[in-house]
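As the work plan foresaw, our protein records have gained a structure token line. A representative record is set out beneath this paragraph:
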Amino acid sequence: MRGELTGRLPYPDSAIAREQGTRGYELRAATSLARLWGEQSRRAEAHKLLAPIYGWFTEGFDTADLKEAKALLDELT
């Protein structure tokens, strides 16, 4: 639950989600933070944050969270 709430914060902390072992929530938090950084012209940092987390996944690429993360990664490159 804490990870879910963290993912909804304006400035999510992916470390909290990681502590809980919930990679889906960590992906959401990282996607949100990467989007913010991208908007702040911190594209390289945003990509560096999100790419390895996206890389953990081996299935479920048709889910909304992974589609969103992939689209953002494409924008950041």
Q: What stands out?
A: The CA atoms of residues 44 and 76 lie 7 Å apart. Helices lie at 2-7, 14-19, 23-39, 43-55, 64-76. Residues 23-39 form the longest helix (17 residues). The two ends are 32 Å apart (CA to CA).
